[in-house]
Amino acid sequence: MTRSSIVDTTLIGARRDRRGQPKGRVVDPVALDEVRALLGDAPRRADLLIEFLHRIQDAHGCLSAAHLVALAQELKLAPTEVYEVATFYHHFDVVKEGDARPPRITVRVCETLSCAMAGAEALHAAVERLGLEDVRVLSAPCVGRCERAPVAIVGRNPIPAATADKVAAAVRGGELEARVPAAIGYDAYRAAGGYRTLVECVGGARTQESVIAELDDSALRGLGGAGFPAGRKWKIVRGEPAPRMMAVNIDEGEPGTFKDRTHLERDPHRFLEGLLIAAWAVGVEAVYVYQRDEYADCRILLERELAALQRDPPCALPPIHLRRGAGAYICGEESAMIESIEGKRGMPRLRPPYVAQVGLFGRPTLEHNMETLWWVREILEKGGAWFASYGRRGRKGLRSFSVSGRVRKPGVHVAPAGITVRELIDEYCGGMAEGHEFYAYLPGGASGGILPASMGDIPLDFDTLQPYGCFIGSAAVIVLSRQDRARDAALNLMRFFADESCGQCTPCRVGTEKAVMLMERKRWDTALLGELSQAMADASICGLGQAAPNPLACVVKYFPHELEA
After folding, report:
1. Strand order in the sheet with 157-159
2. Does residue 100 carry a pLDDT above 60?
3. Pick from 64, 314, 378, 545: most CB atoms within 10 A?
4. Does residue 352 have a cis peptide bond before it, meaning omega lies within 30 degrees of 0?
5. Is pLDDT at 5 greater than 60 in this prediction?
6. What is the torsional sign of CA 84, 86, 91, 97?
7. Would you state the torsion angle of the CA atoms of residues 182, 177, 87, 99, taken in this order, to the nearest 10 degrees?
8. Residues 266-279, buried b or exposed e (16+ Cβ, 10 A)?
């Protein structure tokens, strides 16, 4: 008998010896019972994986290996599939065998630009010095409350204008849960004429064609950042074969952006009515609303108000499913969000095909930002021409500007498209904060670039900023004063991009880390940074890597004096 025959016989014998034995890890019966109790009678579907991971994390404070294996068995998935999803998202704590469980309370201190300008680093250090028992303090990316910087989140309870004393009081007082905003509820909304426009649509008083025509007349564009005309998008998806789906993006992870949260916590049914009108006009089978995990208060509010709507609906409603993010900026990209809704890692898809043709669960999908839908009802009630009549310098419509930084009145300001940042500061924000002189601004959040105050008269809208290497995106305006440096802001943002890169493509994954290293040096190697930026912009799969170089390119172009120090 040859050596190879001996080896083959040995392997075959080993396989025979193992027949009838379970492959991989043995499921812990206690963990399996706990998982089954948490899942209850929910369907065991793979697209619910992230929802189920949240249930386990919420109940046990972490995700143990035993629970992950038990969940894999319940969903008939490989443990590796469950593990790779659980470890992809920032808000899941995966505990390996033998490792210590995380402390009972997590305090997240926002470290991104607006909070950094307001003293986040000192706040983080001060909270750590308190030595609070069974508490860990983590640096966090933007948590969408930039108008009240600096912000810390204790458990699920956001602490605006945070101090170490406020954080300590919340920890010691057990104030770990989010407070539900005092929004307009379902009964009050209906009493004020809410859902009347939806009933007109469903009842035949309006047609799909007339509704889409009003959107076209309004010049409403997607307000999540891309700016695609809303009416045209509805026509494209409506022309695709049924069944069609709808996915709503309330992930809002762009640093400096908090408009969706602000609108939602004040008037959630205005958004829901716009959503339902869009679903009717396009003819969708089901709607999925994806909301970032940092907005725990808005999630509770939306669950409550959606339940009230479904108990007493004004007309027939499509199924509406709420899905909870888990801390991943990349899921603000539409295809990454769809992957996450399907229970996967939030990695952007290669395009084409586009989500309008092949989106959620492989079906044509209408994807929209929350604010875009928030405007639909008012546009239909007042007419597309009403909305389009607003605007300056030839621009059309209204924009919700999230303004933070060195202004007297930060917050969400609804202003005409085409307004300049100087006008926005003077007319809506009460001027610059006391003791601060206007120095620079970010017109579109982390990825929208940085411009000097001398360029503060450019109209703020889609298509107006591209000639200067910038864009408006979701209209997140961060104002810097002469107490700040643009190069420091760019470094803060590049660290954010490096931390939030999904890792799928090398230009973004390696490029952002390399850029951080180069930008941390006293003197920037502008030639090398330029080559790196071009590679990232040309070869990255999605907008994160493509736009990440914008802030540093703006510093080199518009703030060269800062690079000489």
Report:
1. 135-140, 105-110, 152-154, 157-159
2. yes
3. 545
4. yes
5. no
6. negative
7. 180
8. ebbbbbbbbbbbbb
